[in-house]
Design brief:
Blueprint: H1 4-16, E1 19-24, H2 33-43, E2 47-51, H3 58-71, E3 76-79, E4 92-98, H4 104-120, E5 124-132, H5 139-143, H6 154-166, E6 171-175, H7 186-195, E7 200-203, H8 209-218, E8 222-225, H9 227-232, H10 234-246
Parallel strand pairs: 1-2, 1-8, 2-3, 3-4, 4-5, 5-6, 6-7, 7-8
Helix pairs in contact: 2-3, 2-10, 6-7, 7-8, 8-10
The protein binds SN-glycerol-1-phosphate.
SN-glycerol-1-phosphate (1GP) binds near residues 23, 178, 203, 204 and 225.
Length: about 250
């Protein structure tokens, strides 16, 4: 049986087609966090992802998760870079493997190290296949030692997605990297979402309502934005949510 956060996410995708997930990197957001997440909740964001490729301090992470929980009633889902990205205060965790990493650490090592913490903290694990595409200079790609998939290699991305599904992962995340110049190509999203029957989450480099609409029309079940929230605030996210509704 699915846990409550995953069930809520699946229901929202079924009802709305494509949902918005806001990414809060605790290293980048310190002040205004309360107002930001309250605004996101008002705007219709489905859940808050918390994490980042370079999170180093569990104390800073715990503080951010607690602040978010106190300021809104949205589900909080950890988006960890390793065991340091696990907080006892969140509702759930994307229990993920970076499928195109060349390092066993990101494929299975960190997961083995973190699994008992997930159980001890009673976090809801949501199994997810994570695939990095596009330019290899982003933090996610560098830190994760990814053999990045070029934007044009849509069939290769679809094969990764299918492998994730066959391995029992219940979500597939196509990641262009935080702050990427280009988002994932909608043609790749379209090919991948046709190939699998698990929801496809897309993130990295999404800044405008038009981009969000293109991805939703291509078949994305969720889009993730982080940088645009840091740089332009929840107002822009509201426009992105309106675009998702249109799509
Ligand atoms: C990063 O996909 C997320 O993991 C969000 O990327 O910061 O570019 O929105 P942005």
């Amino acid at each position: 049986m699915l846990g409550p956060v995953e069930a809520g996410l699946v229901d929202a995708i079924r009802d709305r087609g494509c949902v918005h997930l806001a990414l809060i990197d605790p290293e980048k957001f310190s002040h205004n966090l309360r107002d930001i997440v309250a605004d996101l909740e008002d705007s219709g964001t489905h859940a808050i992802l918390i994490g980042g490729s370079t999170v180093k301090s569990s104390a800073q992470l715990d503080k951010a998760v607690k602040t978010i929980r106190e300021s809104c009633s949205l589900p909080t889902i950890l988006f960890p870079n390793g065991p340091v990205g696990i907080s006892r205060f969140a509702h759930a965790i994307f229990f993920m493997s970076l499928l195109n990493s060349s390092s066993t650490q990101y494929l299975i090592g960190s997961q083995v190290e973190g699994a008992s913490m997930v159980r001890r903290f009673n976090l809801e694990p949501i199994p997810l296949g994570y695939v990095i595409v596009g330019k290899s200079e982003t933090a996610a790609s560098t830190v994760g030692m990814a053999k990045s998939i070029p934007f044009s290699e849509v069939d290769l991305a679809a094969n990764y997605a299918l492998a994730a599904q066959y391995l029992g992962m219940r979500f597939l995340y196509l990641e262009a990297g935080s702050g990427a110049e280009r988002m994932v190509d909608p043609r790749m999203v379209s090919r991948v979402s046709e190939a699998v029957n698990i929801p496809v989450i897309v993130g990295g480099g999404i800044r405008t309502p038009d981009q969000a609409e293109q991805l939703a029309r291509a078949g994305a079940s969720a889009i993730v934005t982080g940088t645009v929230l840091e740089q332009e605030g929840p107002g822009r996210v509201k426009e992105i949510l309106a675009a998702l509704k249109r799509a």
